[in-house]
Amino acid sequence: MKTIVQVKIPYLNLREAFVYEQITRLRRYRSIVLTDRPMANLDLFPLKEIYHLREVVNLERFLASQEAFLIHAHSVQAAEAMLEAKTRLNLPLLVSLYETDLDLLSRKNRSYLQQLLNLFQKGEHLFVVSHHMRERLGELGCKRQKVTILRPGIDIEQFPFRPRAPEGPDGAILIASMVRFKDRRGLPMLVRAFAQVHSDFPRTELEIYGNGERFHAKLQELAVSLNLARHVSLRGVPTGARLAEALAKAHLFCLPASSWGKSGISVPIVLAQAMATGLPVVSTTYPGIEELITTGVNGLLVPPGDLDGLVAKLTYLAGHQEEWPGIGRAAHDRVKTSFNLARQVEKLEHVYDQFV
Fold first, then answer.
1. pTM for the complete prediction?
2. Which residues of 97-162 form beta strands (DSSP E)?
């Protein structure tokens, strides 16, 4: 079994769980992981073979001892750290670019741009998470045939499908929202929108999952000011089986992104997880999100910052429960077809095969 060196700096943020899943689901290749910062969340993302670059005395000798045949760097920074060893050992270098990589371009950092352009020449292949991201690389001069779209796939079996259905004329409607770090600024708008929805549908409830005590305090203060304290619940972001359980009990899901990164071209994985369970979702018209949701078919979208639009979409779903099963089924099918972890891993291994 051939060895791939996965370079992930840092290892590993909660929002990057899909990277761990990609690495550990490989069946035909052995992976070892290199990083150079203090490791985090090892209890959630354990690996047997993970090494700190600062503890590797001679990188080229180490790679040779591991019989590495390919380097897969997860970011421009990680690729830069491996370029010298790649050249001396004549190893193929594959690079996964995420939205944070292209966000840095928006800061007009010339040295960073030069690093990226350098990878177009010295890297054998690049992975991106969306069509819009591939188009952006093309605009910068990267050859299209060198780029593969590799989605942040999810394990469909961990998020079983359950059709949402009306629970009687007086049944409560639970709206869930979940963010980790990237875009909490859309949540105050969600609370304000919920206030209007709740006035028309008094049995609606809102559960927000997010990290940060100070941010929770601000949202709670807003809920109190709108007389919603008993109808808005604030919780920490769940992981593992608790994440699937939190999504399973909801009737609707809303992620009103006010600024999904600088470029807006990534796909929020929590949306895919929610859709996999059959939840009708409401989100925002960012390019990456639009690759996941076709509004009116498998979810509903509103422009960024459009409070009235968000109220209208949530009100529509609350008042048209008979449409939930159809929207939820279409959402599940979309994720199963294009964001299925097993299929994404197969695609990844197929690219690896080309360099054996």
1. 0.91
2. 125-128, 147-149
